[in-house]
Write a structure and sequence with these properties.
It is a single chain. By secondary structure, the chain is of the alpha+beta class. It has three domains: 175 residues, Reverse transcriptase/Diguanylate cyclase domain (Alpha-Beta Plaits), CATH 3.30.70; 53 residues, 5' to 3' exonuclease, C-terminal subdomain (DNA polymerase, domain 1, Orthogonal Bundle), CATH 1.10.150; 158 residues, 2-Layer Sandwich (Dna Ligase, domain 1). It has 16 helices and 13 strands. The strands form three sheets. A five-stranded mixed beta sheet has the order 5-6-1-7-8. It has a five-stranded antiparallel beta sheet with strand order 11-10-12-9-13. Strands 3-2-4 form a three-stranded mixed beta sheet, with helices on one face. Helix 3 packs antiparallel against helix 5. The longest helix has 22 residues. The radius of gyration is 23 Å and the shape is globular. The protein binds magnesium ion. Magnesium ion binds next to strand 1.
C-alpha cells in the first residue's frame, strides 16, 4: 500500500499479543514449543482460555469447553493458567507501549491502543513504527510476538491487528480503509455478537461492504440504533480517541473498624461488602475495572497494600471479592488490622454499552448482580441479600464490634 504520512490525520495503532497465555507457557517451557498447547483447567471441566497456534488447525479456540477441545485435538498439552506470570509480562509489554506513546489505552492484559499521531519524526512512517514496536516487544519479553494494525481510526486499527495473525503487521492507509474493510465478514464488526450477525445475514448483509453501501435509514429500521453505528464503522468513521487516563482513577470502599480484626473470615466479610458497593457503583456508571487493590491498616497505623491486574475487566462483585481474597493471602502481616479496604483501579469505560457484556467476566454472575441492583433501587439495599451472607449478617449486625465507624 502506498504510504503518504501527510494524509494521516491521526495515527492509531492496535497491538495484540499472539495467543498470549499459550505463548507465555511456550516461552517458559521449551518442551511446549511447536506443540499444540491449551491453557485452561486440567480437570476437563471448564473452558479453554487460549489455544496455541499449533492447536488452531484442529478448530479449537478460546471459550471452547476443554472436553470438546481435547476430542478435536487429543495430542494437545493442557497447561493450567498462571495469571501472576501473565500479569508480569503484561506489565513489561505495556511499559514498551508507553515508550512509544504517552497515550496508551489497554483493553486487556494483552492488547492496547496507542495514539501515534505526531510520532513520525521519531519513529518514521506507520510501517516503521509498527516494525519497531514489534521488535521492542519481542526483545522486552524474551521472544513473544505481537500483531500490530495501524490505521486512522480505532476500529480499523483493531480489525487490522487481527488481519494477519500471528506476528501480523497491517497498515491501512486512510484513503483505502473503506475498500479494505468491504470484503471482510460482518463478524469483524465491532459490537456485532453472534445473534446480531444472524439477524444481519437474514437481511442479506454478509460483508462489511454490504453494510457500508446500505441505506442507513433501512439499517436503522432493521437493526435499531446499532444499525447506524455499524453503518458508521463500515464506512471507517470512528471518532473515538485513545483514552490513556484510564489508569489514573480508582474507586474504593474502606472502613475503619471499632475493634481490630484478625480472623481472615472477618476481613473477608468486609471485603465482600466493599466489593458489592464498588461493583454497584461501577455498573451504575458503566465502568469496568482492570485492577484490584486491598488495603489493610495495622494496629500501629502502618498501611499495607497488595494489588493485581485482572485477566478480564470486570464490574462483577464476585470477581472483585475473589480477587481481594487471593490478595489477602499475599500479606505477610498477621494483624490485627484496624482498617480494611478494597479498591478497583485501572478503570475504563467501554467504547459502547454493548461491549460491557462482551468484556465483563462471568456474565451469569453479572446478570444476577444487575437484578440485585434493580431490587435495591426499588426496595433499598437491605431488600435482597445473597443467601450465604444472611447468617453472617445476623452475627455481624448483632455484634457491635463489626459495625463501621466511618466509610
Ligand atoms: Mg491477544
Amino acid at each position: 500500500m502506498p504510504e503518504q504520512p501527510t494524509e494521516w490525520q491521526r495515527i492509531i495503532a492496535h497491538a495484540d499479543m499472539d495467543a498470549f497465555y499459550a505463548s507465555v507457557e511456550q516461552l517458559d517451557d521449551p518442551k511446549l514449543r511447536g506443540r499444540p498447547v491449551l491453557v485452561g483447567p486440567r480437570s476437563g471441566r471448564g473452558v479453554v482460555l487460549t489455544a496455541s497456534y499449533e492447536a488452531r488447525p484442529f478448530k479449537v479456540g478460546s471459550a471452547m469447553p476443554m472436553m470438546k477441545a481435547l476430542r478435536r485435538c487429543p495430542m494437545a498439552v493442557v497447561v493450567p493458567p498462571r495469571f501472576e506470570r501473565y500479569t508480569e509480562l503484561s506489565e513489561r509489554v505495556m511499559d514498551v507501549f508507553r515508550d512509544f506513546s504517552p497515550k496508551v489505552e489497554p483493553l486487556s492484559l494483552d492488547e492496547a491502543f496507542l495514539d501515534m499521531t505526531g510520532a513520525s519524526h521519531i519513529f518514521g512512517p506507520p510501517i516503521a513504527m509498527a516494525k519497531k514496536l514489534k521488535q521492542a516487544v519481542f526483545e522486552a519479553t524474551g521472544g513473544l510476538t505481537v500483531s500490530v494494525g495501524v490505521a486512522q481510526t480505532k476500529y480499523v486499527a483493531k480489525v487490522a491487528s487481527g488481519y494477519a495473525k500471528p506476528s501480523g503487521l497491517t497498515i491501512v492507509h486512510p484513503s483505502l480503509a473503506v475498500a479494505w474493510l468491504a470484503p471482510q465478514s460482518i463478524a469483524r464488526l465491532w459490537g456485532a455478537g453472534p445473534k446480531t450477525q444472524d439477524r444481519m445475514r437474514a437481511f442479506g448483509y454478509t460483508t462489511i461492504g454490504a453494510v457500508a453501501n446500505a441505506d442507513p435509514e433501512l439499517l436503522k429500521e432493521q437493526l435499531g440504533s446499532a444499525g447506524l453505528h455499524f453503518y458508521e464503522l463500515a464506512n471507517a468513521r470512528d471518532p473515538r480517541r485513545v483514552e490513556s487516563s484510564r489508569r489514573a482513577h480508582s474507586m474504593g470502599s474502606e472502613r475503619t473498624l471499632e475493634t481490630d480484626v484478625v480472623e481472615a473470615e472477618d476481613i473477608q466479610r468486609h471485603l465482600r461488602r466493599s466489593a458489592d458497593r464498588i461493583a454497584r457503583r461501577l455498573r451504575g456508571k458503566g465502568i469496568l475495572a482492570s485492577g484490584v487493590c486491598v488495603r489493610l491498616k495495622t494496629a500501629d497505623f502502618k498501611l499495607l497494600t497488595r494489588q493485581c491486574t485482572l485477566a478480564n475487566p470486570t464490574d462483577v462483585a464476585d470477581v472483585l471479592f475473589d480477587t481481594g481474597c487471593r490478595l489477602l493471602g499475599r500479606f505477610q502481616h498477621k494483624g490485627p488490622f484496624r482498617l480494611v479496604g478494597l479498591a478497583a483501579h485501572a478503570l475504563s469505560r467501554p467504547s459502547e454499552p454493548k461491549q460491557l457484556d462482551l468484556l465483563a467476566s462471568d456474565p451469569a454472575k453479572r446478570d444476577l448482580e444487575v437484578v440485585m441492583d434493580q431490587v435495591a433501587e426499588r426496595f433499598g439495599h437491605n431488600g435482597l441479600r445473597r443467601a450465604r451472607d444472611v447468617g453472617h449478617m445476623l452475627v455481624s449486625e448483632s455484634t457491635p464490634n463489626l459495625d463501621f465507624v466511618s466509610e
